[in-house]
Amino acid sequence: MQLVRSHAILGFAIASMFLSGCASLTGQQPSAISQIVLAEPERAEFRYEIELARLDQILTEDLSTEQRAELYYRRGALYDAVGLSTLARMDFTRALEYNPRLADAYNFLGIQYTQLQEFDYAYEAFDSAIELEPKHNYAYLNRGIAEYYDSRFELSKEDLEYHLEREPSDPYRVIWLYLTSVDINNEQAKKALSENVRELDKSEWGYQIVQLFLGNLDVDEFRKRMTQQLGEDEQLTERLCEAYFYLGKYMQLNNKPLDAMNYFKLALSTNVYEFVEHRYASVELDRVRQSLINR
């Protein structure tokens, strides 16, 4: 699921051919890794590099306060898109120094503080975004996710329910509401998930993810479907980023932490930095590791 979408480069076919070829040469059955779909990690688009260079030049010129704020925000968004989160955070902060009414800059800062698990700063940023723009498209989702990772499940549920009400056909809103609701009451969460699925388009890829959590798809069938029927604007690497993250969450819910860790690592390997699934895969890894230590 995207906060800001980006494009990806496909590369799974070569890896699959290589692995199956090796197996046939040795006379052995395909190894477990040959059952995993691999994609070439996403690379920053050339136009991003050109625009970053252009913005660097423009920022040296004589600009109004509003122009400088907008340019710092734009450069921060580009840094964020290519995974340079520290530089992005610095630019969002600069943008707000010049114009403290940029709701989107607060939203981005909240996301980054959530990734750092600095939740007080994240809440402050999201609250500012919502105060400035009460109908912000993503601030409620992102605050709900921050509350989820901060184990404030009731508050998370309230924000994610509100976010879902605004677009009940969005499968990712359904999924995140389910994930936070499970920690409150597993039975009620499953019931709500069954009800919410009725609003979804069965032809959409996200519908398959919901079916996985409902138990209507097993893992093998889900993995088969995750490479099928890509939309015109959809890239395999983006699909895999989402699929592996939610497989990790599925394994986590089924008390398979080591499998969950591997799927989160696969999600991270796609380099789809702008997707919420990539953003929080590292947080998930930290949580799984900590749970294993505390056992």
UniProtKB/TrEMBL annotation:
InterPro entries with a match to the protein in the record: Lipoprotein_NlpI (IPR023605), TPR-like_helical_dom_sf (IPR011990), TPR_rpt (IPR019734)
Residues passing through the membrane, by range: none
Location(s) in or outside the cell: Cell membrane
Gene Ontology annotations for the cellular component aspect, listed alphabetically: plasma membrane
UniProt keyword annotation of Signal present: yes
Subunit structure: Homodimer.
UniProt-recorded name of the protein: Lipoprotein NlpI
Protein species of origin: Idiomarina zobellii
Lineage of source species: Bacteria, Pseudomonadati, Pseudomonadota, Gammaproteobacteria, Alteromonadales
